[in-house]
Design a protein that fits this description.
- Chain B: Keywords: ATP-binding, Nucleotide-binding, Transferase, Ubl conjugation pathway.
- Chain B: This is E2 ubiquitin-conjugating enzyme.
- Chain B: InterPro entries: UBA, UBA-like_sf, UBC, UBQ-conjugating_AS, UBQ-conjugating_enzyme/RWD.
- Chain B: It comes from Symbiochloris irregularis.
- The structure holds two protein chains of two kinds.
- Chain A has 14 helices and six strands.
- By secondary structure, chain A is mainly alpha-helical.
- Chain B is an alpha+beta fold.
- Chain B has helices at about 5-15, 100-110, 120-130, 130-145, 150-165, 170-180, 185-190; strands spanning about 20-25, 30-40, 50-55, 65-70.
- In chain B, strands 1-2-3-4 form a four-stranded antiparallel β-sheet.
- Chain B is globular and about 45 Å long.
- The chains are: A mainly alpha, B alpha+beta.
- Chains A and B meet through helix 10 of A and helix 1 of B.
């Protein structure tokens, strides 16, 4: 039986109206909804209703952190059988509070104690207590989230130490309690800043031979990078990459595009760098660091062993399966009718069955 | 198009007056320029001032500038009919580190050292190889007739007059050539088209 269009319309109108009165469950549980104003469900109804809370403790909070924060419907309590040991859960502020309490009780004991504790013994006990508590706090590592962003979802409940602002690295990386960690960080940071400053001074005058501008004066901060080739000539990363991606028929690929625009020595790849290396050792170090960074990224051509990477064993990216086990691959080559050398991609039976375009091209 | 780079290049050419090459801007766009190359010494082209039409594409400097001789030249690697140039650095051997100045200097050295093995104008190349003295004579006479600096400036002035009247530059140039350099006749020719 055909459905009458108007009745269908009325039906949908009813559905929409019904939806509009139903509270949005995302807005209800998290006080936010990704759809925003486009959400078909009612945010007003959701905001008006109270969160339904459960009696059970939140397992994520017990393990250390819960991303739901205050909107979590489970109890945020830490019980004795929690997996995090009690000592690790003590926050730096708790440590300081305990230290304060300990000192107060000691001084109270001095003034009112009936046994008349000697001042030396008192001092000793005080320093012992201080040492003990300091050792507890010093052992606490810095909270990574707070170090990077200056805020932490755990807030004061965080089991790790929240660092102070370090102006040289622009991070909250100074340990608030441990003097050793504090000084260590200052030393490392200072050395790094000094090194990069001398490097930067040397790089400041280097110009790109393509755009003829000083590379580090580029108005776009993200483009203040050098592209290093095998020779000693300097280019912006964007300029040399644009030239090497040139597919214009006018320009010869092998003898012009893949070579240095100045000395025409062939370079197989461009290494990005923030500074201009002063000597060959520095350049080698920059290259090595770049290659090791690439070696951690999974190769897109290889695709965890499902595809064939034409670069084979000389590919800079990682050839491994999903577990991270390294995999080697034999690349097979063939020459097309035009004399172009191509790598043989795997052919599946399904491509023949599913009228794959590749198959038809081959037949033609 | 990298306007900053082109402006730098133009400044550099302006500063270096000893090189024997210069560039003029046509109109208010930097897309179309006019290059001038002095004929190298001790060659049949000595004393001449050769005018080159330069078109810069949007992708410049990642593609070579399009260059063509406006002045008629008798040279194995330059077409005597349309001024097309056969030079590898303006084609497949272009590099973005080359500039307008270096490209014009390459043209100057091409005038000094013709490459008859890779000719643009086969007739000239054949003559260059078989009857070298005749070639030198013809090249010299063409230089005197077409690349005369005084003549070039009056020719440019005439083209400028016609362009100011509102005619297309290429058409004006063709009409002037057909009319033998007479502005009045060229104008009538353009109007009758």
């Amino acid at each position: 039986m055909p459905v009458h269009p108007t009745s269908l319309l009325a039906f949908w109108a009813e559905v929409v109206a019904l939806c509009c009165s139903v509270p949005c469950r995302y807005f209800f549980s998290r006080r936010r909804c990704d759809k925003g104003d486009d959400c078909r469900f009612s945010h007003a109804a959701a905001a008006g209703s109270e969160l339904e809370r459960f009696e059970e403790p939140c397992m994520f909070y017990a393990r250390g952190r819960c991303t739901e924060g205050d909107f979590c419907r489970f109890q945020h309590i830490r019980t004795e059988d929690n997996r995090v040991p009690a000592a690790d859960r003590r926050t730096p502020s708790e440590c300081l509070d305990r230290l304060q309490e300990g000192l107060e009780s000691l001084s109270l004991g001095q003034s009112t104690g009936p046994d008349g504790c000697a001042p030396e013994a008192l001092g000793e006990a005080e320093s012992q207590l201080q040492e003990q508590l300091h050792a507890e706090c010093e052992a606490q590592p810095l909270c990574e989230e707070f170090t990077a962003s200056g805020s932490c979802r755990e807030g004061d409940d965080c089991s790790k130490a929240h660092g102070n602002w370090c102006s040289s690295c622009s991070k909250y990386a100074l340990h608030p309690i441990s003097r050793l960690a504090y000084l260590n960080h200052l030393g490392e940071c200072g050395a790094r800043v000094r090194h990069s400053r001398t490097n930067m001074d040397a790089s400041r005058a280097v110009t790109c031979s393509i755009c003829l501008e000083v590379v580090l004066d580029n108005p776009d901060k993200g483009q203040r990078k050098f592209g290093l080739l095998d020779c000693q000539h300097s280019f912006c990363l964007t300029c040399i990459r644009q030239w090497r991606s040139n597919t214009d028929d006018q320009v010869d690929l092998e003898s012009a595009v893949r070579t240095c625009p100045i000395c025409r020595c062939t370079s197989h790849f461009v290494t990005p760098s923030n500074t201009w290396p002063a000597n060959d050792e520095e350049k080698a170090a920059i290259r090595l660091a770049y290659m090791s960074r690439l070696a951690k990224i999974d190769c897109r051509n290889f695709d965890f062993g499902r595809g064939i990477c034409p670069f084979g064993s000389s590919c800079f990216y990682r050839h491994a399966d999903r577990d991270g086990t390294p995999m080697a691959q034999q690349v097979r080559w063939y020459n097309t009718a035009d004399g172009v050398r191509k790598s043989l991609q795997p052919t599946l039976l399904s491509s023949f069955l599913e009228n794959d375009r590749r198959f038809f091209n081959l037949r033609r | 198009m990298d306007l900053g780079r082109i402006q730098k290049e133009l400044k550099e050419i302006e500063r270096d007056t000893a090189s024997g090459v210069s560039v003029d801007v046509m109109g208010n766009s930097l897309q179309r320029l006019r290059g001038f190359v002095k004929g190298p010494r001790d060659t049949p082209y000595e004393g001449g001032m050769f005018v080159i039409d330069i078109i810069l594409e949007d992708q410049y400097p990642f593609v070579p500038p399009k260059m063509r001789f406006i002045t008629k030249v008798w040279h194995p690697n330059i077409s005597s009919a349309n001024g097309a140039i056969c030079l590898d650095v303006l084609k497949d051997q272009w590099s973005p580190a080359l500039t307008l100045k270096t490209a014009l200097l390459s043209l100057q050295s091409l005038l000094a050292l013709p490459q008859p093995d890779d000719p643009q104008d086969a007739v000239v190349a054949k003559q260059y190889l078989s009857e070298h003295t005749k070639y030198a004579q013809q090249a010299k006479s063409w230089t005197e007739n077409f690349a005369n600096p005084a003549l070039a400036s009056t020719q440019e002035q005439k083209v400028g007059q016609l362009v100011d009247m509102g005619f297309d530059e290429a058409n004006s140039r063709a009409a002037l050539r057909a009319a033998g350099g007479d502005v009045q006749a060229a104008m009538e020719r353009l109007l009758s088209e």
